[in-house]
C-alpha cells in the first residue's frame, strides 16, 4: 500500500516534471518566464538610488579564504606569456564609442588614484565570499576616453576561453558609473591572483559573480549588445541562458 | 468562511450546504497550488548548484556549513535535468506571481475582515486546554461536524496563520535579501536576517516548513473527505455532516 502510494506520488511528480521540461523547451514559454527579468530590473532600479552603495565590511568580516570560480587559469599561449612576464606588457584597450581610444599599460592603471572596498561577492550558485578590492573607478577611465552620448553599454572582453569561445560581459551605464564599479588590480592587499582574474578584473558590486569579468583586455563602449558575440550581453547569457541583469 | 445557508434543511437528517470559501480565497488557493510547487521544485534544483548552508554574511566551500544537503533527484526538481539557469528562470518568474498573490490576498483579506473574522484565533481558543483538546480530537481523527465545521478549528487557524503571516512573507523577504542590488537599496533587510547566507538558510528552512505543511494539509484533506473538501475549494460550497450531538 505504502509502496503503491509512493509509486503514485513519484508517478504524479514525474508527469509534472515531464510537463515542466516540455514547457521549458518551448521558446514561447521561456520568453514568458524571461520577461520577468525586465520586471525585476525595473523594480530594483526603481527602489535603488542610482549611487546607493552595496554594503562595505570591516577587515574582521572578511572570508578567511576567498574562493575562485569559473576560469582559474586562462589556457592560451598569449596568457601564458603574460604570466611569465609578470603581466609587465599587459595593456587594456578602451575603444568603441569613445572620442579618444586608449591603450593603457597595467602599470599606469595601478598608479592612478584608486578606491579600496571590502565587499561581498555573491555567486549565482548561492555562496558568498567577502574580500578587499583595490582598483580604478571605471568612471575615471570612461571619462579619460571621452564616452560618446550614443554609448549605452560597456563590454568587457576577457583573456579566458571556454572551448573556442571568449569570455565577455557587459553592463549598462548606471552600473558603469556607480562609485563602487572599479577595475580591480589587487585583492586582499596583494596583486590580483591568477584564479581571481590577474591582472585586472571588474567589480560591479550590485550584481552577481558572473558579471564580475576577469582577465580584462579590452573595454568597448557600444550602443547595442545585439552585434556583440552571441548578442545576449555575456558568455553565460549566450551559452546557458543566464540573465543579463543578475538581480537575485 | 461565510456561513450563508443555501439550502434550508428539509428534515433534521438532511445535510446542509453552506458557502465556505470566498472567491478570493479560492483563486489564491489554486494559484498557489501551482506556484508553490514550481517554487519548491525549482528551488531544489537551485539548491543542487551549491547544497551547503551557512550562517552569517559569507559562506563558501572552505567555510563551515551547518547543513550539507543531499542532491535532490530529477523527479523532484524543475527542470528534471541539471540546469541552474533553467531553475532560476522558473523560480524568479513565479516569485513575482507568488509575492503579488500574497500581498493581494493579505490586503483583500484584511479589508473584508476574513483575517479578523475567520483566521484570528479567539482568546478562548488560545487557552492551552482548548488547544490540547483540539490536538487530541485531531489525533483521534474526530473532525468537527455540523455548525462547528463551518469555522476553522484552532489548529487550522494556528497552522494557516503561521503559513500566511510568517512562512510565506519570510520566504519573499529572505529571497529578496539574497539579491545583491537589494543589499544596496535596503541594507536593513539583509542585516535583519543576520547576513546573506543566514537569509539563504532561513529561506531554505521556511521552504522546508511549507513542504511539511503541504504534506499534512493533503493528509488532512484526504482524511476529512477529499471530495467535499476539494469541491468546496473549487465551488465554495461545503456540505456539512450532521454531528452525533445533533441527531
What is this structure, in a nutshell?
Chain A is built from 7 helices and 10 strands. Chain A is globular. The mean pLDDT of chain A is 94.
Task: Break the fold down into its secondary structure elements and pairings.
The complex is a heterodimer of chains A (248) and B (247).
Chain A: H1 2-25, H2 27-47, H3 77-84, E1 91-96, E2 102-105, H4 106-111, E3 115-122, E4 128-137, H5 138-145, E5 153-162, E6 165-172, H6 173-176, E7 182-187, E8 190-191, E9 201-203, E10 216-222, H7 235-240
Parallel strand pairs in A: 1-10
Antiparallel strand pairs in A: 1-2, 3-4, 4-7, 5-6, 5-10, 7-8, 7-9
Chain B: E1 4-5, E2 16-19, H1 23-49, E3 52-53, E4 67-68, H2 84-111, H3 114-119, H4 128-139, H5 154-177, H6 180-185, H7 187-192, H8 196-224, H9 226-235, E5 237-240
Helix pairs in contact in B: 1-2, 2-5, 5-8, 8-9
Describe it:
The complex is a heterodimer of chains A (248) and B (247). Chain A is α+β, with helices and mostly antiparallel strands and 248 residues long. Chain A folds into two domains: 1-47, no CATH class; 54-240, Oxidoreductase, molybdopterin-binding domain (Sulfite Oxidase, Chain A, domain 2, Alpha-Beta Complex). In chain A, 31% of the residues lie in helices and 26% in strands. Chain A contains seven helices and ten strands. Chain A has helices at residues 2-25, 27-47, 77-84, 106-111, 138-145, 173-176, 235-240; strands at 91-96, 102-105, 115-122, 128-137, 153-162, 165-172, 182-187, 190-191, 201-203, 216-222. Chain A has a five-stranded mixed beta sheet with strand order 2-1-10-5-6. In chain A, strands 3, 4, 7, 8 and 9 form a five-stranded antiparallel beta sheet that branches. In chain A, strand 1 and strand 2 (102-105) form a beta hairpin. The radius of gyration of chain A is 21 Å and the shape is globular. The model of chain A has no long low-confidence stretch (mean pLDDT 94). Chain B is built from nine helices and five strands. Chain B is mainly α and 247 residues long. Chain B has one domain: Transmembrane di-heme cytochromes, Chain C (Fumarate Reductase Cytochrome B subunit, Up-down Bundle). Chain B is 60% helix and 6% strand.
Amino acid at each position: 500500500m505504502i509502496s503503491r502510494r509512493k509509486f503514485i506520488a513519484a508517478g504524479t511528480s514525474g508527469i509534472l516534471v515531464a510537463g515542466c521540461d516540455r514547457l521549458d523547451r518551448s521558446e514561447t514559454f521561456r520568453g514568458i518566464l524571461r520577461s520577468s527579468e525586465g520586471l525585476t530590473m525595473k523594480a530594483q532600479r526603481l527602489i535603488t538610488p542610482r549611487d546607493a552603495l552595496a554594503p562595505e565590511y570591516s577587515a574582521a568580516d572578511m572570508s578567511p579564504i576567498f574562493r575562485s570560480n569559473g576560469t582559474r587559469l586562462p589556457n592560451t599561449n598569449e596568457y601564458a606569456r603574460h604570466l611569465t612576464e609578470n603581466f609587465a606588457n599587459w595593456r587594456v584597450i578602451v575603444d568603441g564609442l569613445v572620442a579618444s581610444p586608449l591603450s593603457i599599460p597595467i602599470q599606469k592603471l595601478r598608479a592612478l588614484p584608486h578606491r579600496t572596498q571590502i565587499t561581498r561577492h555573491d555567486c549565482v550558485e548561492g555562496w558568498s565570499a567577502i574580500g578587499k578590492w583595490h582598483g580604478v573607478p571605471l568612471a575615471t577611465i570612461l571619462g579619460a576616453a571621452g564616452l560618446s552620448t550614443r554609448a549605452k553599454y560597456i563590454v568587457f572582453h576577457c583573456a579566458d576561453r571556454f572551448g573556442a569561445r571568449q569570455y565577455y560581459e557587459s553592463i549598462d551605464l548606471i552600473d558603469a558609473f556607480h562609485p563602487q564599479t572599479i577595475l580591480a588590480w589587487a585583492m586582499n592587499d596583494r596583486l590580483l591572483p591568477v584564479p581571481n582574474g590577474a591582472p585586472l578584473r571588474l567589480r560591479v558590486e550590485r550584481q552577481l559573480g558572473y558579471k564580475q569579468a576577469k582577465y580584462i583586455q579590452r573595454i568597448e563602449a557600444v550602443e547595442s549588445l545585439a552585434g556583440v558575440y552571441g548578442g545576449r550581453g555575456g558568455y553565460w547569457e549566450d551559452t546557458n541562458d543566464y540573465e543579463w541583469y543578475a538581480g537575485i | 468562511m461565510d456561513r450563508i445557508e443555501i439550502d434550508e434543511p428539509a428534515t433534521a437528517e438532511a445535510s446542509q450546504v453552506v458557502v465556505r470559501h470566498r472567491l478570493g480565497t479560492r483563486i489564491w488557493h489554486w494559484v498557489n497550488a501551482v506556484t508553490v510547487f514550481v517554487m519548491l521544485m525549482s528551488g531544489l534544483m537551485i539548491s543542487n548548484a551549491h547544497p551547503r548552508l551557512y550562517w552569517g554574511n559569507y559562506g563558501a566551500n572552505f567555510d563551515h556549513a551547518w547543513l550539507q544537503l543531499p542532491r535532490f533527484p530529477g523527479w523532484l526538481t524543475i527542470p528534471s535535468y541539471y540546469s541552474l539557469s533553467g531553475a532560476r528562470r522558473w523560480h524568479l518568474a513565479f516569485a513575482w506571481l507568488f509575492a503579488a498573490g500574497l500581498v493581494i490576498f493579505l490586503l483583500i483579506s484584511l479589508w473584508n475582515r476574513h483575517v479578523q473574522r475567520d483566521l484570528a484565533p479567539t482568546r478562548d481558543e488560545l487557552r492551552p486546554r482548548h488547544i490540547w483538546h483540539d490536538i487530541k480530537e485531531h489525533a483521534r481523527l474526530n473532525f468537527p461536524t455540523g455548525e462547528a465545521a463551518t469555522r476553522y478549528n484552532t489548529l487550522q487557524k494556528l497552522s494557516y496563520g503561521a503559513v500566511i503571516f510568517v512562512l510565506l512573507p519570510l520566504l519573499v523577504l529572505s529571497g529578496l535579501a539574497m539579491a545583491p542590488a537589494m543589499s544596496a537599496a535596503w541594507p536593513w533587510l539583509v542585516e535583519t536576517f543576520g547576513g546573506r547566507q543566514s537569509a539563504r538558510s532561513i529561506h531554505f528552512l521556511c521552504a522546508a516548513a511549507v513542504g511539511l505543511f503541504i504534506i499534512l494539509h493533503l493528509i488532512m484533506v484526504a482524511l476529512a473527505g477529499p471530495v467535499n473538501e476539494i469541491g468546496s475549494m473549487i465551488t465554495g460550497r461545503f456540505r456539512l455532516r450532521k454531528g452525533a450531538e445533533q441527531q
